Write the structure tokens for this entry.
Amino acid sequence: MSSMSLALPSPLADLVDERLGGVSLALKRDDLIAPVISGNKFRKLRYLEAEVRRAGATTVLTFGGAYSNHLRAVAAWGRLAGVRTIGVVRGEERPYNSLLAACVDDGMTLEYLDRRTYRRKTDPSVIDELRAVHGDFHLLPEGGTSASALRGCAELVAEIERPFDLLVTPVGTGGTLAGVAAGIGPGQRALGISVLRGAEYLNGVVDALHVEVLGERLGNWSIDHRFHHGGYAKRSELLDEFLGDMTVRHGLSLDHVYVGKMLYALFDMAASGEIASGTQVVAVVTGSPAQVVPAPTRPT
């Protein structure tokens, strides 16, 4: 990705809001790194090319839904890296939209799996069937979590040039949280806010990643599973009210899938005292751009 124009280190922006009480909050704006391959997608893919070359592969296969930003980022990465990419899309109806069209424009080959088979996408029999169709490939898990991804996510921490106590990130597959937990120092903690319903298994995923890559378990992180608002990409009236209020107060248009749920959780935990007054928090904007929009005039 050396040919990309990158905004690194990504900026750190203070978010001042009386509802946080004595909690200090800064946003790590990874969403501003680059237009397409940005946020945790950039961090996870940064060293993938070296991983693929070491494996002697010329093709990368990965998975995602019809609106997967992961597929979009991998397709753009493949074009820049000169690596063939295959995107396995969930859906027996063979969905196609502007995002998937952009993937194809970047050279990605699309393969479709019905939802029942897609749930078994990690089974060796399914992988063997894909190899029979597409030839050999380097397998990149859904969400992009790999050993090289942990390295890229850990580097985020070194860019934060101020003291902090707590580093917070949304959690979908666990890779970003595992990476930042590997990068923080003594006395600091990493907190993940799960955006999935019933995803307590992610605790084991993060543990396994640390054992695989670092050779040890780390005790400096945790995942809060209370703030999914119904499940992945689901939303509640409380979440929508919060997101609307963030636009009014701060001119920020936040996605409801990842970052919106993370910030909702932080504000709730600050108000309840679960995050103590005086705590210095950095929250990572991992995905879709937290677009700055003109703040509406407040009613008097």
User: Anything to note?
Assistant: The two ends are 49 Å apart (CA to CA).
